Amino acid sequence: MMCTTYCFILSVSTKLSVDPTSVPLCHNSDGKPHVNDNGDSLYSNVNSTIVPLQCDCEQKKSRYNRKNVSLTTNYRECLCVLLSIIVFCTIAVVVTLWLMRSANKKECKLCTKYTMSQPLYITTTSIELLITSTSTVISTSTSISTSTTTSTSTLTSSTTSTSTFTTTSTSTSTATSTSKSTSTSTYQPDNVPWTTEANSEKLTKKVLFIVADGIPADVIENATVINMKQIQRIGAYTRAYVGGGKKTYTETATISSPGYMSLLTGTWGNKHNVYNNYVKNPNYHYKNIFRLVKELEPDKKIGIFSTWTTNRLKLVGEGLSEAGNITFDYIFDGYELDLITYPHDKKSRYIYNIDQRVTDETTECIRAHAPDLSWVYLQYTDDIGHYFGDSQQFSQSITYLDDQIGRIWKAVDYRMKYHKEDWLVIITTDHGRDPRTGQSHSGQSVRERTTWILTNSQETNDYFRDYQCGIVDILPTITRFMNITIPIESERELDGIPLIGKVSLIEPNVSLHGNQLTITWTVLHNTGNVTIWLSTSNLFKKGIIDNYKLIDIVSIDKKIVIIDIKKYPSDFYKIALEGQYNTVNKWVYRPRHQNKTSGKISTSSSVYNTTKKTLLGRILQKEPLTSSKNST
């Protein structure tokens, strides 16, 4: 604006002060000059065209060197230039005062095209005006300072009205760039996603886990699931299992609520005490993932998206003092109670509509609020499985599920692209289906126990890839991803193993022979030692911390330890093996009948008591699934 004003005044003053007839003429359009070497006209005024003086650098340069410009003209022109300087300085002072008054505004008043990331504070202002016989340069420099850096902004205007805004940093870093002591970078508007190394700040960890009800591994692996395969290409897929250790103290029914509780607490039914969908007496002393997050980081936001309220009110125990009095920040559940909007029909079409609603609410909430930890439950597949078993209808329901997961994934992908967030997405199921018809579940057949886990994580470990993972592994995976430190008393009760990052040891096994405990384990990361802890009580189920005794510290590659337990007489032992990267545990009961001569467990003592309260005999290892691990 200031440059344009000056050029206008200068042009007008020149027209008023110079006699056109006394000025040598410009070139014609054919390039021939109107004057000879002596300055005499080659053409008559009739045939030649007098070209008006243009306001450009070459014309201004030649104008001051012309011999036939009168002395009066020079005086008049100098007067006009002086007038222009006065006008220009007046404008500069006004603009400076205006900027000082507007210092608390975010918009840069020198160039409204850009928006500063922080308020402007004017400290010094210098205005320089240089007019020579060869060029006109107008330079305004304004020194500004922000709360994090001191920078100099230079606005340069040329005769073609092109302006460039740059920021020269004089400190170590700014909100938009990290550089050496002196660097220059083009300013980025606030609405542009941060993509440079300068903005590689620590990303906020977010977790979303989805439970798709009742889909065995063999079905999902042969279904048309375009979106889920897209997630697999980014991350990983593996077969998994539910139901605890078959015919051991950890055996758990392959039913929905026990499966959810195993996921939420990282323990099997012998600890969380949920064996059916009635959820009559859950043991909240085994803390669920939402409680761990809220107790350790209260500012974290949690959300739940579900058909029914049981997941929130009974399994998590929202609002219950014995469950930690936690409260969800985002709640979208209980739609099955709305009989007007979702009238119940015999073919569960209303459940499909509810799943659509749950998906809609999930995508909107993630896009707008992005809770730190969210649980999404989708039910329709299990209902169709109960109605039709292994059928085309069941396959179609999985296609519907894949579409819903795809919509949710797009919301997550949006957050990762346009916000400083790192998301862990885990998709799994709560149980398989019976091998004969596919209409029922709850037993311990291979197909009912065989499930799957799909994740977008690219940091899955050898345990995830090479061993049989369990639904209980999801909780320690989430806590590791979110950098949540589990209290030692709770960590010693976990049955799960992280699926990401380093793992020291897995597959603990303990057998009791008279007064000797034989402890073995499988090594995954051959570094460090194993610390062996022993407790003869199980007070944790009552909310009391057990008294663990340090038994031994051995090299992890030893893989087996035999312990004399004469000093610790008991009918029950809890063993915790603490490695460098994770902790595993195992329980063992002393059998009621023992061969006194040999001191070994009698064969009759290996019978499993189905009441789940008393165990007879030695503990059996987890029965591996017969299905091979393959991917979708």
UniProtKB/TrEMBL annotation:
Residues 145-193 are annotated as: Disordered. InterPro entries: Alkaline_phosphatase_core_sf, Phosphodiest/P_Trfase. Keywords: Membrane, Transmembrane, Transmembrane helix. GO terms for molecular function: hydrolase activity. It comes from the Eukaryota. The chain crosses the membrane at residues 78-100. This is Type I phosphodiesterase/nucleotide pyrophosphatase. It comes from Adineta steineri. The lineage of its organism: Eukaryota, Metazoa, Spiralia, Gnathifera, Rotifera.
